Amino acid sequence: MPDFCAISNLLITIVSAELLAMVLTLSANVTSGQLIHELSLRSLFVQWIALASAVLLCKFRSWLNQQGNIKAGIFAWLIIQCITLMVSEAAFQLLNNTDQPLGVIDGHAGFLFRSSGISMIMSALGLHYLHVQFLWRQQAVAESQAHLQALQSRIHPHFLFNSMNTIASLTRTRPEIAEEAIHDLADLFRASLSSAENRSTLGDELELARGYLRIEKQRLGERLQVEWDLDELPENATMPQLILQPLLENAVYHGIEPSPSGGKIQIAGRYRRSQINLSIRNSLPPDDSPRHNSGNHMAMDNIRQRLEGLFNGEGHLTISEIEGDYQTRIVFPHPWKP
């Protein structure tokens, strides 16, 4: 069901109403001296219809949401027609003594008929636009969830096999570390198998990232150096699920593993101006080292889309190279006072 009360839709309604008033004024037989006066009257008239209809549709939004799309559209269209008739009647009675107010040249009935006819056509077009926009948003959400499910089901087989081998070897020498690794691996699978609609918190994502790095640290040993540099952060901040772990997996797979001597991953976090800034920076292997395939960037695209979708375009993911290191940086808003 389209959201009539969204700020963007209200702004579109106001602008569209003003454009309609301009078209009606320019198409009327008025002199240049009367143009501004006629435009003011028509703007007031059309905006009253548009805003009154928007207010009434917002008031009945809960009830309309319970109806099907077709039934809700019909009721919304009828509500707009009723508003049009009432405003038209009030305008005619109020300005009845002026000279041809609002372009009335064919009397009371003609004015109501033309106002209703224009309203029928324009409201049908407007509701069709909202319905198409609603379907487009549904499709975008479905595609985003499908991408997330594809990402979640895509724990690299090499990571799973290597983790199981690491755990098997630890069970004989350090069973307590093996038990911790099993718990970390279970947390990763729990997150990967959860619903795509679930949201996470910064604290949970950081804990998941630490668990992943603990597993990789047991496997790679001294070849993997991890450095955390986190200021005081709002760990209750809402963010999409499985954001940091895929970025760290990318850093290990493409930056640390191919290098004979290993490398370093630096995770930094800052909170500035109501925004959370997180960066993951990893060293790159030497140019002559064998490298893994670059992949199809599905994880990066998915993370970027989910950040932009959840935070209405204010969440971002950027990729860059700094002093020979590969860096991914995510930024998203969160109002918080430490």
Protein described:
- It is built from ten helices and seven strands.
- The mean pLDDT is 79.
- The protein is an alpha+beta fold.
- Helix content is 60%, strand content 14%.
- A five-stranded mixed sheet has the order 2-4-5-7-6. A two-stranded antiparallel sheet has the order 1-3.
- It starts with 6 loop residues before the first helix and ends in a 5-residue tail after the last strand.
- The chain has helices at residues 7-27, 35-59, 61-65, 69-94, 107-152, 157-173, 175-192, 202-220, 244-256, 298-310; strands at 199-201, 224-230, 238-240, 263-272, 275-282, 316-322, 325-333.
TL;DR?
It is built from 10 helices and 7 strands. Helices cover 60% and strands 14% of the residues.
Secondary structure elements and their pairing?
Layout: H1 7-27, H2 35-59, H3 61-65, H4 69-94, H5 107-152, H6 157-173, H7 175-192, E1 199-201, H8 202-220, E2 224-230, E3 238-240, H9 244-256, E4 263-272, E5 275-282, H10 298-310, E6 316-322, E7 325-333
Parallel strand pairs: 2-4
Antiparallel strand pairs: 1-3, 4-5, 5-7, 6-7
Helix pairs in contact: 1-2, 2-4, 4-5, 5-10, 6-7, 7-8, 8-9
Q: In this structure, how is the largest beta sheet organized?
A: 5 strands, mixed
* Amino-to-carboxy terminus distance: 39 Å
Overall form: elongated
Per DSSP, what share of the residues sits in E-state strands of 2 or more residues? 5-15%
E-strand count: 7
- The parts where pLDDT drops under 50 for at least 5 residues are none
What's the Cα radius of gyration?
30 Å
Can you write the helix and strand succession as a string?
HHHHHHHEHEEHEEHEE
Number of helices: 10
| Arithmetic mean pLDDT | 79
